[in-house]
Amino acid sequence: MPKGSLTLSPDGRQATLELIAAVIDQPKWPAYEAPYLPAVMSLKVVWKATDEKVLINDKEKHFRFEGFRAIAQAEARVSVPSLDFSWRSDPLKTSHAEFAIIGTEVNGKYFDEYEKS
Amino acid sequence: MDISKDREFQKVTGISRRQLLGSGACLIAGASLLFSRTAAGITPEWSAPSNGSTDPYPIPWLDKNGSHNQSPGPGMEPSSIYHFKGHVARCNGFTGIGTDSQNNRVTFGAPSTDFSFMEGEYFAARQERRGAFSHI
Question: ipTM of the assembly?
Fold first, then answer.
């Protein structure tokens, strides 16, 4: 993603992702060869860790996550120029995510190295 | 099979890799054909060592749509890239509302509305690399 899109607090407990991306509007996805239209999306997501710790150490899938359950909120704008359609969400604080986590992960070869250390 | 490589192969050797692999003599015939072409001064365009793409590897696990993705949730792998170590965050199940260009109030969010970022070190093309990626 473009430089500057991600702001991470020094302790890793809070993050802000801000992106403007060329996307597609494809209402019939995941239907095979579903028609689509070019669109533009701007997005801001904020994660803030709670005090609830989360540890997942999955030896079968070779990954380890260590972090916290989080509160996540998002605001977005979408436009589909060819349809003369646009949409803008209410401010960030009005949204709510049912599930969110933030932390650190090692997987694949880095998980194997972690397990050996 | 990589179709672009197949076309390159066909351009250099005059036969497709599918035809060659189907012949039952692929290794010997392939080596012979390539040697004769190289000896004649025709260097295959794809003769450089292949180290793979510098793009990160996707996680091996597939979701219900066959994508290398895991829906966020307890116990699920947060990262979408493999051979990775670093910061990661994931979220889904958004509820919210907004306004469209016709001034209609339209809700947003579904279990499949998930966002994430991965920032740190990953291994690709035989080297450790650094990068930041998002899933939107």
Answer: 0.91
